[in-house]
């Protein structure tokens, strides 16, 4: 097993003696080890607070999507989303309330994005939606998803007996198989800040 010559699977117990008992104990240890490895893999690719994919997973997924777009001659869209009003909640109600807002925001975003899309929390109050395999109506699809994400936060949150109002500003970057992952993320990040300066709760689109 240590040389990867055998799978990490329980060994057959065929004897009811000290050797059999030793193998049974080894099998129990192996199950715990496999469970721990699965847990570590999940932690490596998912945000522990919201359960969404994290920046590391998004980076790998983005490279895959861009390679697919190059093969299929399709387009890729990326929504960079930053919450409006979140800092006030953290400052006034505390970080536990802020964490609960982030969890509820993640659930609302998850309810509106497509199953084929990748929704990630990349840190703080920043979320990203990656849309792949877009066709001629790419901009229409991206603006519809952006509008749905904005509308998803229109209803206030009730946290610890307080009404919390949170919005979202969105920067949209549209690219293709010739675009790089770094340029797509950077473009969406920059245009998001432009959208926030125009009044928040809005989106702007940039085509690479």
What is the topology?
Blueprint: H1 18-45, H2 55-72, E1 75-84, H3 86-93, H4 95-112, E2 118-123, E3 126-134, H5 138-152, E4 157-159, E5 162-164, E6 167-176, H6 181-197, E7 203-207
Helix pairs in contact: 3-4, 4-5
The gist of it:
This protein is an alpha+beta fold and 208 residues long. The chain folds into two domains: 1-45, no CATH class; 55-207, Reverse transcriptase/Diguanylate cyclase domain (Alpha-Beta Plaits, 2-Layer Sandwich).
CATH architecture of the largest domain: 2-Layer Sandwich
CATH fold-level name of the largest domain: Alpha-Beta Plaits
What Rg is obtained from the alpha carbons, in whole angstroms? 22 Å
Structural class: alpha+beta
Number of domains: 2
How far apart lie the N and C ends?
49 Å
Helix proportion: 40-55%
Top-tier CATH class of the largest domain? Alpha Beta
The largest beta-sheet arranges its strands as 2-3-1-6-7
Order of helices and strands: HHEHHEEHEEEHE
Low-confidence stretches: none
Shape: flat
What's the mean pLDDT score? Answer: 90
Strand content: 15-25%
What is the CATH H-level superfamily of the largest domain? Reverse transcriptase/Diguanylate cyclase domain
Mind describing the biggest β-sheet?
5 strands, mixed
Q: Total strand count, please?
A: 7
H/I helix tally: 6
Can you give keywords for this protein?
208 residues; 2 domains; alpha+beta; 7 strands; five-stranded mixed sheet; Alpha-Beta Plaits
Could you characterize the architecture of this molecule?
By secondary structure, this protein is of the alpha+beta class. The chain folds into two domains: 1-45, no CATH class; 55-207, Alpha-Beta Plaits. Helices cover 50% and strands 22% of the residues. The protein contains six helices and seven strands; from the N terminus they run H-H-E-H-H-E-E-H-E-E-E-H-E. The protein has helices spanning 18-45, 55-72, 86-93, 95-112, 138-152, 181-197, and strands at 75-84, 118-123, 126-134, 157-159, 162-164, 167-176, 203-207. The protein has a five-stranded mixed β-sheet with strand order 2-3-1-6-7, with helices on both faces. Strands 4-5 form a two-stranded antiparallel ribbon. A hairpin with a 2-residue loop joins strand 2 (118-123) and strand 3. Helix 3 (86-93) runs antiparallel to helix 4 (95-112) and helix 4 (95-112) packs antiparallel against helix 5. It is flat, with a radius of gyration of 22 Å. The mean pLDDT is 90.
